[in-house]
Design brief:
Layout: H1 24-39, E1 44-46, E2 56-60, E3 67-78, E4 82-87, E5 102-107, E6 109-115, E7 121-127, H2 128-141, H3 152-165
Antiparallel strand pairs: 1-2, 2-3, 3-6, 4-5, 6-7
Length: 166
């Protein structure tokens, strides 16, 4: 059974290693992560959030409810256009045990490449909320949290809420 890692856990700050082989265990972990994401009303979950320092994520397009299981995802291009949207994270919780939210500026669209659980190479252009989710989740694979993208004063306000939880 996978367990959610929370802000302060060192695995969330690790640069994750690539996945070399798609195994039945990996596929089972991806399935479990999808269930965990849904149970917690999330739209994405990265391997380090469940304590695994490997490059894989799951995410869901909230408009179509399409679920993506991405192994070794890589964003290959970013739009010049940016968007400021609210983000939260299942690993960054406040005193009410709910995600803390803040507005983050990111590219409005991206092109991402990945391998799916069947070993098929995939590529997609994503914009809007899906682009936001894939950027947020791939940041996790490089040891970055959305709070790292905030201005120092705003980041401290978020962290005050996180510390109240502890």
């Amino acid at each position: 059974m996978l367990q959610m890692k929370l802000c302060g856990d060192l695995v969330l700050r690790e640069k994750c290693a690539p996945v070399d082989n798609i195994t039945p265990d990996l596929c089972a972990t991806l399935d479990e992560m999808v269930e965990m994401m849904r149970e917690q009303n999330g739209v994405g979950l990265a391997a380090p959030q469940v304590g695994i320092a490997r490059r894989f994520i799951v995410m869901m397009d909230p408009d179509t409810e399409t679920v993506y299981k991405m192994i070794n995802p890589r964003i290959v291009s970013y739009s010049d256009e940016t968007a400021k949207l609210e983000e939260g994270c299942l690993s960054v919780l406040g005193p009410d045990n709910l995600p803390v939210f803040a507005y983050v500026v990111r590219p409005a669209s991206v092109v991402v490449e990945w391998t799916d659980e069947n070993g098929k190479k995939c590529v997609a252009e994503m914009s809007g909320v899906p682009a936001r989710i894939v950027q947020h989740e791939t940041d996790h694979l490089d040891g970055r949290l959305f709070i790292d993208l905030l201005a120092p004063v705003r980041r401290e306000m978020v962290m005050r809420k996180v510390r109240k939880r502890k």
